[in-house]
Structure formats: structure tokens, C-alpha cells
Amino acid sequence: MTVRLLSRDEPGASWPVLCWEAGPGWRMISSAVVGGGIGERTWWLNAMVDLGYHHPDPAAHVREIAAGLGLGGGDGVGMLTAADVRRWRSARDGGVEVVATVGLGLPVLAAEPDQEAAGATGSPRIRPTVGTINLLAIVPEPLSDAALVNGVLTVTEAKTQALAEAGVPGTGTSSDAVCVACPTGEPGESGRYGGPRSVWGARVARAAHTAVAEGTADWVRTHRPGWS
């Protein structure tokens, strides 16, 4: 597989990290704490942290993790999650690969009213288990900026479809992150579009749906969700 499971040592604990050493020649779009936006990136990581994570500078922490894994030579994309990244799921479709880590302790509806999101006391609703879905989609041909943006939309729609089919009462979680990667270069006709009925968007959607569906099923098997 493209992605490897590594580990990092920090005081008092050893933590798993999913890592992709892409190398030069890749562009990525991401919402991650490090490497967000669109640009050339040489690595991606998804690092597990404690449920009560409170590092004063998460971006600096991600860069420390990357350097410790030997990924410091260039810009990259770094995500953090309290979900167990050792239970990651991946799926392939027509050359596309999608990797997902799924935690569903706090599913939310994207357009939920403030008073319902906060609850009667006005404080955010808290559940004792983690909730984060992090996604990486790798497309093997160059995409335009517009197609990359649309790819993020397509991945998110496929994720939400998988959650709805599993009966999860939310469109995602409030801390989800996504990254779509493609080679640098001039896109051809098929690389100008990223919607779910485009050549690459359709493959991204199917792979994302499979990876999230498998990750969701695994999470439900190993937890006792309050919404089931």
C-alpha cells in the first residue's frame, strides 16, 4: 500500500502515525492543520494523539512529528486525530486510492442550529469517545485547481453517503479533515473536473465511500455508540 503505519515516541507513550512519503512532483489540497490550501507537498501524515490533546502549537507539533519520521525535507500535509489510526481503512478504484481513519464519538449535522448543537445548557455536547474522520485521496493524474476543489467536495459527499447508509445521525464530525493529492503537471481533459460524475471524481467517490463505510462498520463493532 502507498501509506505506511509508523510510530513515534513521546514522553510516557508511543503513538502510531499513518504516513505517505509522496516525494517531489505532487500537489495537494487540504484542510489540515499543516499544509492546508493548495500547493506542492512531499508528504502526508495522520498522527494519533491523546483524547485530551491540548498542545499549545499543534502545527509546530505536527512538524516535529514529521521531522522525527524523517519527513522534514519539504512541505507536507499533517493531520491529528484521537481516533486509532491503526484501524485505518483503504480502498482503490481505477488507479485512485483513498485512506480513511474513522472516529464517530460525536457525529454532527453540518447545518444543525446553534441551540441544538450546544444543548440546553449552552455548552457544546460532549460524548466520552472520539469523533474525527480524516481522509486522503490520491489521484494518479494531474488535476486543475478547480478539480482539486471539486475533489474535496466529492470526497465529502461520498463520506456523508456512507454515514447515512450506516444510520449515523450526522454528516460528519466537527473536526474532520481531508486531503486530495495528484501529480504536478498540466491536466488533460479528464483532469479538469472533479465532480462525482467526472472520470476521476467518480473513482474518488467510490473509493471514499468504501473506505468510510468499512471504517464506520469497524468503529460501530468496537464501540457502543449512543445513537445506535
Structural class: alpha+beta
- SS summary, helix count: 4
CATH class: Alpha Beta
Helix fraction, binned, reads 25-40%
The domain tally reads 1
Strand portion, in percent?
Answer: 25-35%
Descriptive terms for the model:
L-amino peptidase D-ALA esterase/amidase, alpha+beta, single chain, 27% helix, globular
What does this protein look like?
The structure is a single chain. The protein is globular and about 45 Å long. The protein contains four helices and twelve strands; from the N terminus they run E-E-E-E-E-H-E-E-E-E-H-E-H-E-E-H. Mean pLDDT is 91; it is low at 119-129. The chain is an alpha+beta fold and 228 residues long. The protein has a single domain (4-222), classed as 4-Layer Sandwich (L-amino peptidase D-ALA esterase/amidase), CATH 3.60.70. Helices cover 27% and strands 29% of the residues. The protein starts with a strand and ends in a 6-residue tail after the last helix. The chain has helices at 58-68, 114-118, 145-165, 199-222; strands at 4-10, 13-20, 26-30, 37-40, 43-48, 76-81, 89-93, 96-102, 107-108, 133-138, 172-173, 177-183.
Which secondary structure elements does this structure contain, and how are they paired or packed?
Blueprint: E1 4-10, E2 13-20, E3 26-30, E4 37-40, E5 43-48, H1 58-68, E6 76-81, E7 89-93, E8 96-102, E9 107-108, H2 114-118, E10 133-138, H3 145-165, E11 172-173, E12 177-183, H4 199-222
Parallel strand pairs: 5-6, 10-12
Antiparallel strand pairs: 1-2, 2-5, 3-4, 3-12, 7-8, 8-10, 9-11
Helix pairs in contact: 3-4
